[in-house]
Specification:
Elements (H helix, E strand, L loop, with lengths): L5 H10 L3 E9 L2 E7 L5 E7 L3 E2 L1 H13 L4 E6 L3 E2 L1 H11 L3 E4 L13 H8 L1
Parallel strand pairs: 3-5, 4-6, 5-7
Antiparallel strand pairs: 1-2, 2-3
Helix pairs in contact: 2-3
């Protein structure tokens, strides 16, 4: 699969039913998108392109969600796997508001209680 561009990611966000509020490229392999789901929750979507997602990526998302006061956060990973440390960090720092997934869940199904389900899909 070719590496996605920011415009491709934005299109995926909209196609999944989210209202895209903003997007920015943080690094060559990392983007932050802010979206609203159908329940009106503001969701931080941190997109990461690399082979292995580590604990620091999860902690970065947790910090963004906390500092910017988002309702939830999604770590969207393309063609990668989560390290065991990253999986543990999702539980430790996520407070039930973070999840990692390989593709965006539909906007109407964003539910912080689904952390374990999304982690297992991304692995």
């Amino acid at each position: 699969m070719p590496a996605p561009t920011l415009s491709m990611i934005e299109k995926d966000v909209r196609a999944s039913g989210y209202q895209l509020l903003s997007s920015e490229q943080l690094r060559t392999n990392r983007w932050l998108l802010v979206a609203r789901d159908t329940a009106g929750q503001r969701i931080a979507i941190l997109v990461q392109l690399r082979a292995l997602i580590g604990e620091s990526d999860v902690r970065d998302l947790a910090e963004l969600v906390q500092i910017r006061q988002f309702d939830a956060g999604i770590l969207l990973i393309y063609g990668a796997s989560l390290s065991a440390y990253a999986q543990r960090a999702l539980v430790e720092v996520g407070f039930g508001r973070l999840r990692a997934c390989a593709s965006l869940p539909p906007a109407h199904s964003v539910d912080p209680s689904g952390v374990a389900r999304f982690v297992s899909q991304a692995s």
